[in-house]
């Protein structure tokens, strides 16, 4: 039995791909399994405020995100109900260092940026597959996938 020491990331959305980029940049082996067959992002757009932009800065993709989105140096976000009535207004003040107060970006574009970096870093991505079961050993975990394959990973 071949046992690998790396991280299995279940889910290839924003958080899963950002984690893969961070791990790969620190020479930690990782692999993503994504239940969807393709990388289609769900939703239209998103506003990235301080915490995600700081995280993207830490993993080195903030410049790409800023180029693809719209930066806010100070902004007011309006949240509306299904009838279009404003239910909450939020003012976003200030920025963090060189980062803007926020960036609005299409989810599909953000996903493209993340996927490009994941690919560039050589992170393995298995699409159309998810975890079916786990079995803990004394020093490893045996992961069984929905496609019938399995993987043994050291703790």
Beta-strand percent range: 35-45%
Low-pLDDT windows of residues: none
Number of helices: 4
Mean pLDDT: 87
User: Tell me about the biggest sheet?
Assistant: 3 strands, parallel
Number of strands: 11
N- to C-terminal separation?
A: 15 Å
SSE-based structural type: alpha+beta
Strand order of the largest sheet: 1-2-8
The general outline is elongated
Furnish the topology, listing elements before pairings.
Blueprint: E1 7-10, H1 14-25, E2 30-34, E3 45-48, H2 50-58, H3 62-68, E4 70-72, E5 75-80, E6 86-92, E7 102-106, H4 107-120, E8 124-127, E9 131-136, E10 140-145, E11 150-154
Helix pairs in contact: 1-4
Describe the structure.
With 155 residues, this protein is of the alpha+beta class. Helix content is 27%, strand content 35%. Strands 1-2-8 form a 3-stranded parallel β-sheet, covered by helices on one side. Strand 9 and strand 10 (140-145) form a beta hairpin. Helix 1 (14-25) runs parallel beside helix 4. The longest helix has 14 residues, at 107-120. It is elongated and about 55 Å long.
């Amino acid at each position: 039995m071949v046992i690998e020491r790396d991280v299995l990331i279940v889910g290839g959305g924003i958080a899963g791909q950002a984690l893969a980029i961070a791990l790969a940049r620190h020479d930690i082996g990782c692999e993503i399994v994504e239940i969807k067959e393709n990388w289609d992002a769900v939703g239209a757009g998103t506003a990235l405020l301080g915490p995600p932009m700081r995280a993207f800065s830490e993993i080195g993709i903030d410049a790409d995100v800023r180029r693809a989105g719209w930066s806010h140096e100070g902004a007011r976000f309006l949240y509306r109900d299904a009838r279009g009535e404003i239910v909450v207004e939020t003012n976003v003040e200030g920025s963090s260092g060189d980062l803007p107060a926020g960036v609005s970006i299409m989810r599909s574009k953000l996903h493209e940026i993340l996927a490009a970096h994941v690919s560039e870093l050589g992170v393995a991505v298995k699409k159309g597959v998810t975890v079916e079961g786990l079995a803990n050993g004394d020093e490893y975990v045996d992961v069984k996938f929905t496609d019938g394959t399995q993987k043994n990973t050291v703790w």
